[in-house]
Amino acid sequence: MKYRTTRTAVLLSSVIASLLLSACGEKVLDYRNAEVVNGALYARGANEPFSGKVTNVLAATVFEAQAGFSTLIKTLKNVDPMDTIGGTGVISICDVSTNKGVLDGPVSCKLPRTDTVQLEAAFSNGVLDGNLTLHDETGAHTLLELAFKDGQPDGIMKLYSSATDKLTHTVEWKAGALNGGEDGFDPQTGNRILHTTYLNGVLEGEMTQYAADGKTLTFKGTFQHGLLNGEVDKFDIKSGIRSVDHYTDSKLDGISQAWDASGKLIGEKTFTNGEDAVQKQKEEEKERLGKEVDVAINDPDPEVKACVNSYPWSKAVTPSDDEAIEEDRKILAWRDECRANPDSHPAVDRSISQIKTVPTTQYNNGK
Length: 367
Hints:
- The protein is α+β, with helices and mostly antiparallel strands.
- Among the domains are: about 25-150, no CATH class; about 280-365, no CATH class.
- It is built from seven helices and 26 strands.
- α4 runs parallel beside α6.
- The longest helix is centred in the first third of the chain and has 23 residues, at about 1-25.
- It is elongated and about 105 Å long.
- Keywords: Signal.
């Protein structure tokens, strides 16, 4: 009789628990006891997709399959490769809501073995839809706020400093692409230190950057279809050096100048399609002369060839560009004298120090 009473009590408590669970309208499933079949989540062995709360789901499992979330992380890393926001929250453990086997409803993710909430989001019919908020590892400081719509970032993204809780960055998303203004703020002063604009995911229009005081201009340039074009002004706070460059499609193109803190010109170069025009001209001249010298030392006329190879080659095996050009010009002048009179050994300017006769192969290899 005692056995029957105990068994009856157990059965009664089970019925009450089931009634209470039904009244709440929520079923709870540990993810360890779940399985995913054809993209839908089931309680292991069940015939119908699960609807209710699923616990202990890795954040990576929840978010890595979300294209919009991946776009967000990629963008954050492109802006600042050292930024850690993209990895924050992914190692946390989440409680999610499902409806007929797909994510639907709120998601809350906590650090393993703690009650510290790091990531909060919402899903609708399997995709991110609603506000996403990311906190630091203490849970006390918000790092990021952004809304999603139909699985994609959509709205004003806000980034905050965990040290000061001040707003450090805002940028507008539309349907998964950066569209609209972007502003940066100093985490200490709160002054605006960046302003630019995006169109369909690429920079478009003027970009300005400032020092922490929000007044001292450190960068000013214009983007067209994501590429720098036109005049770019830069100012280095520490050195006081100001520079003005010119760009075409993000490549230096035109005159580049720099001035020290006193306003004295300290450097000037001319670029063409991203290359130093003077240096490029010098390299082309060096290559042209080098080819002429190769022809000269292998002249088809044996007497001319012997005369050319009697030139007192420079000792320098790896001369500078200027030295190589000077030497090659002298060799070619010697070649011209040899052609005029191969039996003579014309005088040569011996201003290059420590000259001596070396095999031509050594000279050519040095080039």
